[in-house]
Amino acid sequence: MKKRGDRVAIRKNDSGWLVDIQPGGRGGKRFRKTFSLKSEAMAWEAWVKSQVAQSPEWEPERRDLRTLTELVELWYQHHGCNLRSAADTRRRLLAMVDVMGNPVADRFSAEDFAKYRAQRLESGVTANNMNREHAYLRSVFNELKRLGLWKKENPLSTVRQFKIPEKELSWLTVDQIQSLLAELENCRNKDALLVAKVCLSTGSRWGEAEGLRKSQLRNKAIHFTGTKSGKNRTVPVTESLYEELTAKVVASSDRLFQYCWGAFRDAVERCGLVLPAGQMTHVLRHSFASHFMMNGGNILVLQRILGHQSLTMTMRYAHLAPEHLQEARVLNPLSHVQSMEAV
After folding, report:
1. Is this prediction's pTM over 0.70?
2. Residues acting as catalytic residues
3. 293, 182: one domain
4. Count of structural domains within the chain
């Protein structure tokens, strides 16, 4: 009896008796061979099937005919839907797959992604954004493999991300901070001043400070929740700032502040501050970290305050510490030669 999925195994043609079988079913390897005698054809058919039955590895692995879109949806169903940015990540992945022509998953290769990446770079997409897209798609295969829903290797495991030069971290001097606070004092939206003070006092992101709620103020400290890293953190503040914040508690409903990014942007422009792209409000976080290190703060404490998962991120501010690499002044060979000449 033929297995389901087998073709008519042996048939007569002009050349002889043709054996045409797929022992592994649809998607499995197809075996074809012609013999002069039907008995030879039947014997070869039986031998091939016995080889596959006794040693499954003898037959190449069956193809995975799912498309990349199907894998993305499977990833979303079993893992991606639980991420904080679930809908946005799914949208980005599906857009990527669509541009690549939604290939069959087991034919998708590192070379295919490299070609897609080159096209995107030529169209003006930044290398940083391409690294992010690479990470998104690579994680799809990694998660499906962990869940047992993808049996093959991750096709993007051999693709290296671009090295991105460190951006200049712009931070404000004391004079610039005083000038900015004075401008914010005159804003019609008074919340912008207090939000900026929270950022400068705690190193929080603008969104974390602007979205503060009553429940996050306790024991003269701010308890940040729903952060970018997903981990809560607590940062003590001065008594005067805490009093300003608690005064807002009485006057507000649940959220302490209204939307005030626009008021902050206007104040920055009036001050004449020129900031790198993308650092309009983030300059406050950089300013906190920079002054913290310049005033002798500990890099490990700063990591905990900023909520960085990796110390590597925090080390960007290490060079601002007063003692940073000061040994270079006295331990270099020229300094040693000069000291010998002085003797």
Report:
1. no
2. 205, 228, 282, 285, 308, 317
3. yes
4. 3
